[in-house]
Amino acid sequence: MENTGNEIINGIRLLLDGLNGPVVVVPHSNPDGDAIGAAFGLARVLKNAGFAVSIVSPNDYPTFLSWLEGDIEIVNFLKSRSVAESRLRASRLMFCVDFNEIDRVDEMKDALAAYSGKKVLIDHHPFPKDFCDWMVSEPTYSSTAELVYDVVDALGLGQFWDKQAAEAIYTGIMTDTGSFSHNTSRPNLYRVLTGLMTFGIDTEAVHERVYHNFSAHRLQLLGYCLAEKLVVLPEFRTAYISITRDELKKYNFVPGDTEGFVNYPLSINNIVFSALFIEKDGWVKASFRSKGSFPANAFSEAHFGGGGHLNAAGGEAKLTLMETLEKFTQLLPDYLHQLESAN
Ligand code: 5GP
Ligand code: MN
Fold it and tell me: Is the model's pLDDT at 71 over the cut of 90?
């Protein structure tokens, strides 16, 4: 860990040593494989170490990750607000995983701001905001899950790993690297994977559960998007897909179904910037992916109130879907030079 010295690790260790009461682990809103994998991995290690622990998620998480639950409680803040609030009230320590600013928990933001216990951040997004008591922020890591592995060991909790915790961490790494296709150049990743493999995890089974676990509707929605909704703008080395609410409904959309759609346009020869726009109730969710030096996060922050990593970012627009697409395409000429020079 480059940014996390002994002072931070000792600070967190002291919090754990002096703790009297449960721990909560909080992923970001619309949690993905990394947020959920990191949360379950950390929660399970803490449970094995004797702490009472639950996960409080700002909203629902994809069903293709539900096999990670085991006997760890996960409370959905949107659906079971009073249970979630009582878990937050009863706990004295919170781990915030896989997000770098309090806005990323959406409706749970006020509850986090009012939290009376101590908060510890474990995250790999660049430019974290100061909303926690201790911050483990390591943007060179492939995933928060990879980082959790090193934090657990640094805290002296390495003896509490087990197969289920290792599988959760592996899932986070696998999903955030696109099945080991990006952010996989640091040797530390392979050291962590080697450590995880000692717990006998079945990597093929994990891959099956995560990637071969969709409904037929999801595959048909993907096919429809690629055949009918893909717009390619070779002059801007950009391609995008948009999906309306009606289209989602037609294909029986459930959370997680559009996960990964935004990556497909990048497989087109010479395309370096890809976007996915999904119509919500009165707003539009935007996802951006890029290759090389083109900064998806800066683009999203400047125009879609979001952020993320250099090559993977998200944001939103309080516009209609049509207006959002117009805004997006009108912005591209301003980025022509950066798009042309990205490699
Ligand atoms: P996705 O497109 O998969 O939703 O998100 C891609 C990346 O951007 C993830 O690392 C995610 O944490 C980040 N991200 C997604 N939406 C937002 C947003 O609204 N604000 C910020 N700051 N980051 C986002
Ligand atoms: Mn992540």
Answer: yes
- Spatial separation of the C-alpha atoms in residues 8 and 30, rounded to whole Å: 28
Q: What number does the ligand 1 atom closest to the CA of 306 have?
A: 20
Question: In this predicted model, what pLDDT tens digit does every residue of 166-190 receive, in sequence order?
Answer: 999 999 999 999 999 999 999 999 9
Number of structural domains found in the chain: 2
| CATH number of the structural domain spanning residue 160 | 3.90.1640.10
What values do phi and psi take at 287, rounded to 5? Answer: -125, 140
| Residue with tokens 């099945």, as numbered in its chain | 179
Q: What is the pLDDT of residue 256?
A: 87
Instruction: Look at ligand 1, atom 16, and give the residue with the nearest C-alpha.
Output: 314
Per-residue tokens: 138: 């390591």
Pocket lining for ligand 1, CB < 6 angstroms: 32, 104, 262, 287, 306-309, 312-316
Q: What is the CATH number of the domain that holds 293?
A: 3.10.310.30
Work out the pLDDT band at 327, boundaries 50, 70, 90: very high
Regarding whether 199 and 313 lie in a shared domain, the answer is no
For residue 291, is it within any domain?
yes
Q: How far is the CA of 322 from the centre of ligand 1 (A)?
A: 22
Determine the Cα–Cα distance for residues 12 and 73; give it in Å rounded to an integer. 23
Based on the fold, state whether residues 205 and 254 are members of the same structural domain.
Answer: no
Q: Model confidence over 16-48: pLDDT tens digits?
A: 999 989 999 999 999 999 999 999 999 999 999
- Give, for 68, the enclosing helix (H) or strand (E): none
Query: Domain range for residue 335?
Result: 216-341
Is residue 1 one of the residues assigned to a domain? no
247 in a structural domain: yes
